Amino acid sequence: MTTLPIIDLSAKQDPATVENLRHALRKYGAFRLWAPELKQAVAGGLLREARGFFQLPTEVKQRTKGYSGFGTELIRGTTPIPKEGINFFRKNDQRDGCIPPPAEFFRHVIAIHDNWKRSQDQLFNLVFCDVLESDIPLTGTPSLDYESVGIQYYNPQRMITGDGDYSPPHMDGGTLTILIREDDEGDGLEVADLESTEELGSDGVGREADFLRVPTAPDEVVVMVGTRLQRIMGRTKARACVHRVVGPGQKHSTDDRVSVGIFRACVPHPPPPA
Asked: Where is the Fe2OG dioxygenase domain (predicted)?
């Protein structure tokens, strides 16, 4: 069975592991990361608080800073995503009259953010120095280096049909996305085999490429390349991950889905020539 490679930042990476990662970044733009502390921090209260928030009255959620309503986020500017979401620490979110999220909910988000910061430098050094062999200074510029945290809620009861996609094929912006999911056999994350098609855009890739299912597993998260890293490094080294979330189907038709994404948005300074 084909799977994405996995790395453990606490262990020394042997040459075979590094080469497998290089291949995965070109073929899928994604790999798995052994991150038990990060996974446990999400399971330890954040999921409960997130579900509680998304059950609040619509008028309360709509007034909350960072909230996006059901179907308001678009893929490629045209296709609505059947989900709700809330984003934290996103730049340029300056809507007036917003209220903060519930205090306990926000406390758990802060804990996740702080937990991630303890391992981000190791991950960046591995990916950029060892795997991509880059000498571009991708961190160290405070005005450009930041992460936002996004929590997405998918409710199968609001799907038009039970066999639709929760999220159509798309790429994330930024440099890296760290995706944290519940251990649920019904989770429908799939990543495209970018070598199975000559298409480059997410729409064409979504129509033509083969897709690899990425099951959830205890203590693992998924790391995905964003479009900014692809622009910086070039497609010969790293491809932006085209991914989708398949709907729950009949077997899991009553199971909702909560996922947590940490979106790393750093850019090189100075930027490379156009």
From this structure: 145-267
User: What CA–CA distance (Å, rounded) separates 93 from 181?
Assistant: 25
Residue recorded with tokens 């059947």:
82
Q: Which residue pairs, CB below 8 angstroms and at least 24 apart, start in 121-124?
A: 122/9, 123/9, 123/33, 123/176, 123/223
Classify 6-264 by CATH class: mainly beta
Per-residue pLDDT of the chain (274 residues; tens, 9 = 90+): 689 999 999 898 899 999 999 999 999 999 999 999 999 889 879 999 999 999 999 999 999 999 999 888 877 777 778 889 999 988 766 677 799 999 999 999 999 988 888 888 889 888 888 898 887 766 555 555 678 999 999 987 766 544 567 888 999 988 899 999 988 877 889 999 999 999 999 999 999 999 999 999 999 999 999 998 898 889 999 999 999 998 776 655 567 889 999 998 754 444 333 3
Q: Residue 231 corresponds to which tokens in the numbers above?
A: 């622009």
The contacts of residue 37 (CB under 8 Å, 6+ apart) are: 115, 118
CA-closest candidate to residue 167, choices 100, 217, 224? 224
Residue carrying the six token digits 């899928």 = 28
Q: For residues 215 and 187, is the Cβ–Cβ distance under 8 A? A: yes
